[in-house]
Records
---
Amino acid sequence: MSQVFTNVTELPPDPLFGLKARYNQDTRKDKVDLGIGAYRDNNGKPWILPAVRQAEQKLINSPDYNHEYLSISGFEPFYTGAAKVLLGDASPAIKDQRVVSQQSLSGTGALHLAGLFLKKFYSGGPHTIYLSQPTWANHKQVFDTLGLTVRSYPYWNKETKSLDLDGFLRTIQSAEPGSIFLLHACAHNPTGLDPNYEQWNQILAALEAKKHLIIFDSAYQGFASGDLEKDAYPIRKAINDSAIKSTPIIICQSFAKNVGMYGERVGAIHVVLPTKDDQFGRAVKSQLNLIIRCEISNPPAYGSKIVATILNDTALYSQWRKDLTTMSSRIIKMRDTLRTKLEKLGTPGTWNHITEQTGMFSFTGLSPEQVERLEKKHGVYLVSSGRASVAGLNDGNVDKVANAIDEVVRNVQPKL
Ligand code: LMR
């Protein structure tokens, strides 16, 4: 084998799924999983949203229920409903039919489609994509693999544990015109730190001035504030309020977290054109269709039908909105509890960032060495960057986690 395949080197396990595998093998009864971002209820169990349970029943009982192929674009009631979730029912872009949508294999599939489409067709600037520093571990490898040049923009100021807005704006200004910028629409992964509205306005204006192309990664809509509208602020500002006038905008959307459809791989890519051009829109759609046809033939049906059932039924939609509040408020409560406990213990350092951050994750500020000790000594699992999935905390384990963090902070000095 080694003679016919060269350079097939064994790679280390994926940082997130490798962590999950180690957690699963750990036999300690009181282990705690704060690794992969997946919502857990207050008993530490996966939660099937009530809206999903009801939609599944409705779907299965429908006389039209079947397992036929979808079209290459996917399930139309799904991807048209999905665009409305992002842009709002009254979006001028939707009304003018400027939104080209294609169902994808969740957010990662949408990012891959975006990267491949840009690689094949983008001529508005260099094939250089700027990612936030830090960002979700998978971003870099998705775009690297496709042959885009990956660079980063400053985002997290380690000292102040806040947004490095100046650094971010400086990079936007110094990047070659027409570069590609990937923005986390809300609930930034891994930092849990989002720009406020005023900061978003500045960021979008700077991007427009340099004619950079924006890809929004929207994986957590409804998870930051509990409110779909508020969490869509930068997307709607850019598109509906025409903050971006000159270039198309790409949105990569996942329903893994906000509908809890993790394993069903439900997502979409939307290419929003700045001006109406039906013929060009059809051409974009046909090219996205070709990529899908070659790679997966046509998208998976079951999860998208469940989500479509929720999006197109008034009662189920309002149940979903309640479910989003249930999830986001439990996470907010756990942030409060963890911070309060650490402050009561007098754990060295400051812990206000835990409640100031938003969405599923907290960037705790713990060092890789401290994280390693948390795992080995205490059975508390989080990503080596110090990112903790707050959704893994509950009333039964938060004391243990606070005590464990207190112990490692006192006993392991971060390397300078
Ligand atoms: C995470 O960041 O934990 C999730 O988005 C899961 C994943 O696929 O990496």
---
Amino acid sequence: MFEPIERVPGDAILGLIEAFNNDSNPDKVDLGVGVYRDEQGITPVMRAVKAAEQQLIDDEKTKAYIGSHGDPEYGHFVLETVLGANSPVLAANRASATQSPGGTGALRLAADFIASQLPGKSIWLSDPTWPNHLGVFSAAGLNLEKYPYVDADNRLDFDGMLAALKAIPEGDVVLLHACCHNPTGFDLSHEQWQQVLDVVRDRGLLPLVDFAYQGFGDGLDEDAFGVRLLAENLDEVIITQSCSKNFGIYRERTGCFIAIARNSEDMEDVRSQLAITARENYSNPPAHGSAIVATIFNSPELTAMWREELGEMRGRINQLRQDFVAALAPHGLDQRFAHVAEQRGMFSYTGLTADHVAQLRDKHSIYMVKSGRANVAGLSKDNLDYVCNAIADVVK
Ligand code: LMR
């Protein structure tokens, strides 16, 4: 029976991890998969996370199931962090949190929820978007459509985006990146979010906001501007959240599906469906990551420590963006790559072509996604000149 099964290529992003590990060049640089790296190239366990884990070893009483919605304390803290502690949406009891195995798990819950409860609705994705969005939503059987996001000159194409949103059939789902757009790093201004809100409201669209990088752009509250604008001005919103990046707990698979409904009655209806969706997929989410997050939020000291370290990570990335453009100036390339300093989050759509990316890899052992997406956090003071020399070599 297995004989006709074809071998398929592995995931393009995750495959880079293996290719990088197998490269023996001591100067190799990993700008591929989206994990934060410090100046030494290490993805550290955050100090607050370590302290919380130490506490958990002593305090954890059981490993029994935590239920399909996960840890209620975790859900409460996530809702407050995403929507703001004083959110009118929370005061009206309109928001429900279902803990998920990572942000990807939350996306799959959203996809299954749309497929089963909103049949016939297409989902509209930015072009480009995180490649796995295509995988997750099509695996759930949804019809995928796209709206433009960058133009041919590698700039945010907001006019194109808005025009396309205006033409989406009423009631369809539109996926928006809350901040730190993956893969491009181009984010919307406050005015542009306002215009998106107007179109979404006029067309009666359901926004699904992917919020995987809160705190990596301009700050925890600053990065939530668009999410909160939509949540406070629309009846219904879905948010998929992740703690992978901002707590650095990638492998603990810690995320959340958030549904905002017109009123608490509708919210409970939706919530009841989500418990079934979770149950049918994986029954209960893993508990260690959510316990870490809840332990941190329960301690003012650990919360302060976490916020400080997150601020350091954000500051390092934003500084690297400036340093990168400056280091390209001697090559006469600072104008060509000036957008890198304006983009936000872990990623930059550099504008390098697939051919450039292949040359960077083959000649210089520098790894990035074929689309030209680079993980800025993979740069460091030590490798910056090496990377910039290599870029100058391949683009000339
Ligand atoms: C990325 O885009 O590199 C990250 O979100 C990791 C992943 O799972 O693709």
---
Amino acid sequence: MDFATELLSSRRLRTECAVIGVYEHSPLTGVAATLDGALDGRLSRIVKHGDFSGRLGDTLLLPDLGGPIERALLVGMGARKSGSSRHYRRALQAAAQALLKCGATEALMTLACDAYGDIDPYYRARYAAETLLQSHYRIPSLKSGRKPKAPTLTGVRVLAATQTDLTSMKRGLLHGVGIAAGAALSKDLANLPANVCTPTYLGQVAKGLAKEHRRISTRVLAEPELKRLKMGSFLSVTRGSAEPARLIVVEYRGGKAGAAPIALVGKGVTFDTGGISLKDPGAMDEMKFDMTGAASVLGTLKALAVVDAPINAVAIIPACENMPSGRATKPGDIVTSMAGLTIEVLNTDAEGRLILCDALTYSRRFKPAVVIDVATLTGACVIALGAHLSGLMSNDDALANDLLAAGQRAADPCWRMPLGEEYQEQLKSNFADLANIGGREAGAVTAACFLWKFVDGMKWAHLDIAGSAWLGGANKGSTGRPVALLVDYLLARA
Ligand code: BES
Ligand code: MN
Ligand code: ZN
């Protein structure tokens, strides 16, 4: 889908479909009033006769208008004064769904024109692009038979009220397109089954990114190199699997040559059976999503490349399966991490931290300004925060606040949870430097505290996306989170 911005005053009102916001309990104003004029008062009559109330999320398609505006799609915006950025996005979603159902190949979007909800024009445009593109996302289909019809809409002109708005909105659209492309890549990878999306496959996709974007370069390390690097903790997780592990390193260089990069470490467990501490079979299929951290950091780099962001970033992805077998790591086994700390593996299902700690240690060679790990790390985080908020832990208040703010702006929110020595004590072991589990209590916090032991001297944040990364049930599938949060954070730093 192509996006363009256009000034209201230029009034090129010829379109296959004008998308028009209508506010509840209020006369037509702004663009709607202008378009009402072009439509011989049709809109005001519809509102006056009570055929469209403007209730948030309602839509009404007026087809076959027979003039330069071939169709009008009325979108309920709710009460103008209670507008918020949440309501605005709801209205956009409703518009996107209605556009999918009509046959228009081109649309004139006017919802971003109004300052409804006090939203920055940049975000009005960005949300519009993100939402429209998201509505066109389809899960990579492994179904046989006829393919569903592709959406018809290919071009959207987004109307701006002023020249200043137009300039910000142009940027907003570009960034929205980048975020949507990154989120789509992340979703595609996460939605694929684990027999397709293996560590090897993830490595190939990362190499593909380097082919596609000149600022991206990729290196994929295989097991012999991981042994040489002494990644004993990472390797202990892959031991039981027949699929070879990979450490995938993807660099995006858009900033100054010597500028310290932001390191993004993504958990890439392409399938988590739990290992010898085998999981319950109920919903075990969803453990194909246990590489969403990896998918989201790849998606984030893709987004940076699409928008040509002036920043340096590096994604580091430990990728492997967690399987039981005669060779698998057993509860009680002690392994030595790359950092030299020994770890007693009391539960082989707490494998995410075991691969992340070595990847965090590896990230030091890039002397990153900040390191952020992203992981579907604990069921405890799902219990604490549900699907709405990602868990955030950090050893740096400024970094934590930046990520919280980015999450709010990007509509991809997170919530800070604590770290603390008192929790770290739960990780004591009689046999090794630390144990890989800290008991039932505060499971999301003790998991983060485990990682905290490996990031001394670095500005670090941890995003536990176990709840936010995918939906279960009838809508089972990846959400694409937290690509929008990460890209927003990175763009704000750039
Ligand atoms: N990948 C899981 C976490 C998970 C569970 C994410 C359910 C989403 C939904 C992780 O590897 C895991 O198994 N964690 C254990 C840790 C425990 C053994 C300390 C958990 O949360 O049960
Ligand atoms: Mn596990
Ligand atoms: Zn896992």
---
Amino acid sequence: MEQDFLPLKGTDHVEFYVGNAKQSAHYYQHTFGFQLIAYSGPETGVRSMASYVLQQGKVRLVLTSSLIPNSEISDHVKSHGDGVKVLALWVDDVEKSYRETISRGAVSVMEPQVLKDEHGQVKVSSIKTYGDTIHKFIERSNYHGPFLPGFIIMKPQFPVTPVGIQYVDHCVGNVGLGEMDKWVKFYQDVMGFRLLLTFDDKDISTEYSALMSKVVVNGNSYIKFPINEPAPGKKKSQIEEYIEYYGGPGVQHIALATDDILKTVSELRSRGVDFLSIPDVYYDGLKDRVGTIEEDLPALKDLNILVDRDDEGYLLQIFTKPVQDRPTVFYEIIQRKGAKSFGKGNFKALFEAIEREQALRGNL
Ligand code: FE2
């Protein structure tokens, strides 16, 4: 097998540019059970922006707002609303990651830099991906601070109970009509990923809309990026709705893994997280479709959790409604019990649920 020219150790963090990071941080703490761990802003000598770092399991979210009208952050929020700016990848060698991807055609955002403070040093560089989204490479083996140099330890102001979120399972991008293959090729050629799965509009279509999706995965399979594009349907597809409201391609959803989805979802529901509702009829004959599962079916039905099976096992999943007013970014909660797939058997039920929401928004 060919040497992996871009070995990745995992998702380092996901950074959102948002209108009001202070309030977003409160939302993710209170509802999703993330712990506030670090902060940078005026109090730490940063004049133009504020960032809150939240952690649960291995998942680190960074919420950043501009404090001034004219900045890259405020432009991003103006165009896209609250959304994902950075999918940061944890690497052993930032220089090499940058060099290997740039030499294969990546567009540079930031050349390798060394950031230092009293806790040590971190190397960072970044490249563009779809839309205004970027990948940052982070090398942190010589760093012992709470997040990155310049950030101070920040403690939560109120008790926060985790909900069992453990790691980022996958991050999905929506791109424009006819652009999916271009971005799949980018991940293959520039970042050394391989194509794992393809779904066409026959797999993913409802009465109204269709989409196509391909999943790319890196060498050790830690990083999985499904890429969606709209396919022609009778009405506006959910991907077109996203692209219209996001103002272009961007991150559609982040799937967060748990090892007890019943507990995680009932906790999230009790804290006010809105999930897509699935009609009772989905659960009729579910046992016949997925075979024996360990979970109690009435409990899954009660929480609207979906089940799918592949050759290697099964998975349980559920999707939130968008977490901001624009119908853009949402979350998936997933528990894998052997299955390495993405819930193809649930696409129809899921897209019909999304279309009911689109219709309520007047966008179908
Ligand atoms: Fe997903």
